[in-house]
Amino acid sequence: MAPPASRRLDQLVQALQRLPGVGQRSASRMAYHLLQHDRDGALQLAHALQAAAEGIRHCRLCHTFAEEDVCPTCADPARDPAQLCIVETPADQAAIERTGSYRGRYFVLMGRLSPLDGIGPDDIGVHPLLQRLQATPAVQEVILATSFTAEGEATAHIISRLAQALGLKVTRLARGVPVGSELEYVDLGTIAHALADRR
Amino acid sequence: MAPPASRRLDQLVQALQRLPGVGQRSASRMAYHLLQHDRDGALQLAHALQAAAEGIRHCRLCHTFAEEDVCPTCADPARDPAQLCIVETPADQAAIERTGSYRGRYFVLMGRLSPLDGIGPDDIGVHPLLQRLQATPAVQEVILATSFTAEGEATAHIISRLAQALGLKVTRLARGVPVGSELEYVDLGTIAHALADRR
Ligand SMILES: [Zn+2]
Ligand SMILES: [Zn+2]
């Protein structure tokens, strides 16, 4: 068998497999495409990866990805500080924002409980959330918008107990959201309806 | 709707969509995974992309990806210069190498004819192949190992005419390779058999 034609090509194929859902064959196809047809794209992606990995941190208040200490949503004085909506991911937050029917604030867990995967309360943002609730007396209502999956429900349950122990009103998105689905993939009307019907 | 939380995040999601087969949703998931769980992977991929895009060129003789002027396979004096096997991609070449049943040399077209996509003889390596054949009198047999698809057959047909005009013997992998399939995905035994039965 011939020696590999290029060590750099091998390393690129290896590195592409760090992407979720990309196996050896997809990685080879991606590397071939970039090198043969889109070297500008390869350099642009290299730059974007480095800029993101080195320049993106977590918002001090809501924990989502941000470039500044505080993200634009948290910095917006027009958002109602009495409501705090708890979501699992930035994508879920974006889905709620797209409904245009929520003007409160957010906390982004960046994950959800998954005991089978070894993901406990300390691995998602439960501790920073508790700090946030204790440090922000303006919060009156915690709206649980975690997924309607077993893991999302368990996450909601833990946060519900913490918030109730602090004397806060706790609501959950109405079950208009189809059970078993991830919020990110739910249509906007359903999310808006579930927000209005929260209990 | 809230302003985007991070311009760098948006740019990363955009850049990831330069990868073939990656849409907006996959790109978001990839960006989230890298930033939340694997920043080392993001930096490693950034480095590999840049190193490959800037350091990989085409072998002067066989046209495949290489870091040197001439790739290791072409530089190997043990390979038989009388046989030149024509393949579409480095992945196809690798598939043939894995059979261990071919000791001749290669030419890698880096594509195949696809009139519907506007890919003609000038877009794949037909012209460099002609130069290679004219400059290398040692070649006696051209083995066509393009895919057994309509596009691969059309590519083989054009090259066959060129090579015959130069007085060279032209063979084609035997039809042991399942019709309609891409060589890269064919099992090794079938490829070895097809090589032995070439006509
Ligand atoms: Zn924030
Ligand atoms: Zn070569």
TrEMBL record, chains A, B:
Q: Supply the alphabetized keyword list.
A: DNA damage, DNA recombination, DNA repair, Metal-binding, Zinc, Zinc-finger
A single GO molecular function, which one?
Answer: DNA binding
Q: Is the keyword Lyase in the record?
A: no
Toprim domain location:
82-178
Q: Name one GO biological process term.
A: DNA recombination
Q: Where are the zinc fingers (C4-type)?
A: 59-74
Regarding protein family, the annotation reads: Belongs to the RecR family.
Q: Give TM regions.
A: none
Q: Does the keyword DNA repair apply?
A: yes
Q: InterPro entries of this UniProt entry?
A: DNA_Rcmb_RecR, Rcmb_RecR, Rcmb_RecR_Znf, TOPRIM_dom, TOPRIM_RecR
Biological role: May play a role in DNA repair. It seems to be involved in an RecBC-independent recombinational process of DNA repair. It may act with RecF and RecO.
Indicate what this protein is called per its UniProt record. Recombination protein RecR
